[in-house]
Amino acid sequence: EVYPEPVKLGRQLKYADGRKFRLAVILGEDEFQAGTFQLKDLSTASSSTFPLTDLETAVASALSGRGIEAL
Fold this sequence. Notes:
This protein is an alpha+beta fold. The chain has three helices and three strands.
């Protein structure tokens, strides 16, 4: 799901947490330019940065319970 309005990231993450999402994929201008994304675990507030090519693997790993640091 994508936040419906262009507002600050903190508000978007609060919205996602309120909807009980486990993870947030963050791909802002800086990440896009670097070819990376941030994966944030909303239950622990931890996040890690990965190459865009690892998006599917990183999300699957986090959802399987191995955590976002497992890659």
